[in-house]
From TrEMBL:
One Pfam family in the UniProt entry: LMF1_C
Segments forming domain Lipase maturation factor 1/2 N-terminal: 25-172
Bilayer topology: Multi-pass membrane protein
Protein name as it appears in the record: Lipase maturation factor
InterPro entries per record: LMF, LMF1/2_C, LMF1/2_N
Keyword DNA repair carried by entry: no
Protein source organism: Synaphobranchus kaupii (Kaup's arrowtooth eel)
Transmembrane segments: 211-232
Length: 397
């Protein structure tokens, strides 16, 4: 697969995985009253349309993710993907290290469970109250499991939000106090009056809000047509283009690390201080720096020309910029002269065997150098590079 094509596919993956964030925010607007500050305003209860939009959001997120997997790579069909997942995910944690060594049958169970939760459970949403709540429970537990085991945790937290819409007032009532005038009492009062047929007469504002909610439902329905067509199509574009990506992402952990090189004075000899910038030293446990590690992980599948931000970070490192150094667990330049050169190195990482010789030496990782990622650069050499992109030169930060 060409590197440029891989970059385009990765951008699509980002969009697909991140679509829950704008959906959560957009639909959340229509759950809130416009003027009242009451928790449960009598004349403006949450619209059922908004609740169902959240439910539809979790259905499409999970179905889309499941179909991409099952269509995108054979390992999801032969149930072997979890043999690689924990070791090759962008941000593993110490729990990932041990889960990776689970028995083969447990990995098969994990893969089957993934398919059930992503491909079957979403349909529970449309099968009545109890089945809808069952789907909500499964989705929340699934996301919590992914958060605990590493993965892309901030996306998993976002995905929990629409899952909560699978529960109704009765199911969520325990979260609210029963004090007089509280939210629980207000909801009970509104439900009692509706059951007795004593609904408040609609005002112009209420009618306008209903019209807005109906319009939103029509708009989302219209925009969902191509989504549904994509889901049911055997030529699901993202799934087809993802095949090669998954062979990279699930079968090998290619992690970009920055190697800092200090030139001592004017001599030709150099003091080399190896400080990985992404995955960490082999003796460091897997740690989670979600945003930066995630981006560095994907950048390792491309060239630095396709990820110019890496050179930008290198320049800021050369300038000993505190805002960039704060992203690194250990500052290799602390109490030292600023580095003259920084270079990028490309490594492949894999977990060491628990109880093995490397683990006995305190090594969580075993790594192999694949080659240079970008050549040694210095501040003077980066000046034209930064100017051509209208970036402030690092030495003025």
């Amino acid at each position: 697969m060409e590197k440029a094509q891989l970059g385009r596919v990765i951008e699509e993956v980002f969009f697909w995985l991140g679509e829950s964030a704008p959906g959560d925010g957009l639909f959340g607007i229509f759950l809130c009253p416009l003027w009242s500050l009451e928790q449960v305003p009598l004349r403006c209860p949450p619209s059922r349309i908004s609740v169902w939009l959240f439910r539809w959001l979790i259905v499409r997120i999970m179905l889309g993710a499941g179909l991409i997997k099952i269509r995108g790579d054979r390992c999801w069909r032969d149930l072997t993907c979890m043999d690689y997942h924990y070791e090759t995910q962008p941000v593993p944690n110490p729990i990932s290290y041990y889960l990776h060594r689970s028995p083969w049958w447990f990995h098969r169970f994990e893969t089957l469970s993934n398919h059930f939760i992503e491909l079957i459970a979403p349909f529970f949403t449309f099968l009545g109250r109890r089945m809808c709540m069952a789907n909500g429970v499964l989705q929340v537990l699934f996301q919590v499991t992914l958060i605990v085991s590493g993965n892309l945790s901030f996306l998993n937290w976002l995905t929990i939000v629409p899952s909560v819409a699978c529960f109704d007032d009765a199911a969520l009532g325990f979260l609210f106090g029963s004090s007089e005038g509280g939210a629980k009492q207000a909801v009970s009062r509104i439900q009692s009056e509706e059951a007795a047929g004593r609904k408040p007469a609609p005002t112009r504002g209420m009618l306008a809000r209903r019209a807005l909610n109906v319009s939103l439902a029509v708009l989302i329905g219209y925009l969902s047509v191509p989504v549904v067509m994509n889901l049911i199509s055997s030529k699901q574009p993202l799934a087809v283009s993802l095949k090669s990506v998954q062979r990279w992402c699930f079968r090998a952990r290619s992690v970009l690390t920055l190697m800092t090189q200090l030139h001592c004075g004017r001599s030709m000899s150099s003091c080399v201080n190896q400080e990985p910038f992404s995955a960490g030293p082999v003796s460091s446990p897997p740690t989670t720096y979600p945003r930066l590690d995630w981006l560095m992980w994907f950048a390792a599948f491309q060239t630095y020309e396709q990820n110019e931000w890496v050179i930008h970070i290198a320049g800021r490192l050369l300038a000993n910029d505190s805002s960039i150094l704060s992203l690194i667990q250990h500052n290799p330049f602390e109490d030292r002269e600023k580095p003259r050169w920084v270079r990028g190195e490309h490594f492949r990482y894999r977990f060491s065997d628990p109880g093995g010789a490397n683990a006995a030496l305190g090594k969580w990782w075993i790594r192999k150098r694949l080659g240079a990622y970008f050549p040694p650069v210095d501040l003077a050499g980066l000046r034209k590079y930064f100017q051509s992109r209208d970036w402030p030169h690092p030495d003025i930060y």
